[in-house]
Design a protein that fits this description.
With 387 residues, the chain is an alpha/beta fold. The chain contains 17 helices and 11 strands. Strands 4-3-2-1-5-6-7 form a 7-stranded parallel β-sheet, sandwiched between helices. A 4-stranded mixed β-sheet has the order 9-8-10-11, covered by helices on one side. The termini are far apart.
């Protein structure tokens, strides 16, 4: 009899359950019902889908960002409503999946780590805006961070069994996004619909736009710096349009490990949820290198996609600059999707926000949240002058 057969299911809280990561997490759980029990679900505005999820998975706790829906949701699902932080730190939670977008994930992540939980982290902004605080909370509370991004999952898997001192360099791969073959002139005319047409991945709207500007890859470099304790100057980015090699690690002896697989977010989600086990999948298909064929790699074009360089700059500056970058980008992407801002203006806004910011002397939670609020207000005012 396996060790798992005699143990209880892992109890999951899923924050952002109606988003792309949340929905795919629940799909993974559906295939592993005997291993997982969903005890908490939360969403922002999609109360209808949240209610459907609650009826299916019967969690103890629910939360909706729509205040008017909470009472009806709790009544329909038979669950109690509890805030994101309450769910994240709940004594019965084993795993907390943070699939929210933006700064909304910060306080629940801190709460979970301080309570000693394992946090399956899919929210990029959390580590970008407050990497030092998050890693400190994990050390103090005994919690752990389990990465879900395909790139960070790849690096994480390559490091299993390795000493941190053996790492020479991390190489993050990037698909290049929807506009990887566009000229600078073409980029000035693209629409939100164009930006959301990602060539290889199916993701949420915000992260898909971030992939198109390549700021996403800068965020991931900052995340990797905190997740794996590797300085930014030893983290490189290469374009890899096939999205088969998810990232690589080069070691001090010259050896290089890479993690490969089809571009499917359910794989890194499954890896994080089941860690430290490798759980067999049910499908019969197997990765086929012959069918995959040639793999291509090239350097990113910083001139066409300056947001990547700006993100790396913010990471090097440290302090509250990354928080400003993340918040200004979230606001800028919102304005772009609403038709208030041109695609090419996103990087201009980020550049000017970073230039205008005066970093706080301390980077405690209050300073990070203040920088976040300042950047959002700055971005909104900036857009107003352009409309």
């Amino acid at each position: 009899m396996s060790a798992h057969a005699t143990s209880r299911p892992k109890r999951l809280v899923i924050l952002g359950s109606t988003g792309s990561i949340g929905r795919q997490t629940l799909e993974v759980v559906c295939g592993l019902r005997e291993r997982f029990q969903v005890i908490g679900l939360s969403a922002g505005a999609n109360a209808t889908l949240l209610e459907e999820q609650a009826r299916e998975f019967r969690p103890r706790m629910v939360w909706s960002g729509s205040e008017g829906e909470r009472t009806a949701l709790a009544a329909a699902s038979g669950a109690d409503w509890a805030t994101l932080e309450e769910q994240a730190a709940h004594p019965d939670a084993d795993l907390v999946v943070v699939g929210t977008v933006g700064s909304a994930g910060l306080m629940p992540t801190l709460a979970a780590l301080r309570a000693g939980k394992s946090v399956v982290l899919a929210n990029k902004e959390v580590l970008v805006m407050a990497g030092a605080l998050v890693t400190q909370a994990a050390k103090q509370g005994g919690g752990e961070l389990l990465p879900v991004d395909s790139e960070h999952s790849a690096v994480w898997q390559c490091l299993w069994g390795e000493e941190g001192s053996a790492v020479r360099r991390i190489i993050l791969t990037a698909s290049g996004g929807a506009f990887r073959d566009y000229s600078a002139e073409d980029l000035a005319r693209v629409t939100p619909e164009d930006a959301l047409n990602h060539p290889t991945w199916e993701m949420g709207r915000k992260i898909t736009v971030d992939s198109a500007t390549l700021v996403n890859k800068g965020f991931e470099a900052i995340e990797a710096r905190w997740l794996f304790d590797v300085p930014l100057d030893r983290i490189d980015v290469v374009l890899h349009r096939e999205s088969i090699v998810h990232s690589l690690v080069e070691f001090v002896d010259g050896s290089v490990k890479a993690q490969l697989g089809e571009p499917d977010m359910k794989l890194p989600i499954r890896v994080a949820l089941c860690y430290p086990e490798r759980v067999a999948e049910e499908r019969e298909s197997r990765f086929d290198l012959v069918r995959t064929g040639a793999l291509h790699f090239e350097p990113p074009d910083m001139r066409r996609f300056p947001a990547l360089g700006l993100a790396l700059k913010a990471g090097r500056l440290g302090g509250t600059y990354p928080a400003v970058l993340a918040a200004a980008d979230e606001a800028a992407v919102g304005h772009f999707l609403a038709g208030h801002l041109r695609f090419s203006d996103i990087s201009i806004l980020l550049d000017e926000a970073l230039s205008a910011h005066r970093a706080a002397a301390d980077t405690d939670v209050e300073a990070v949240l203040a920088a976040d609020a300042w950047a959002r207000a700055y971005a909104d005012d900036w857009v107003q002058t352009k409309v």
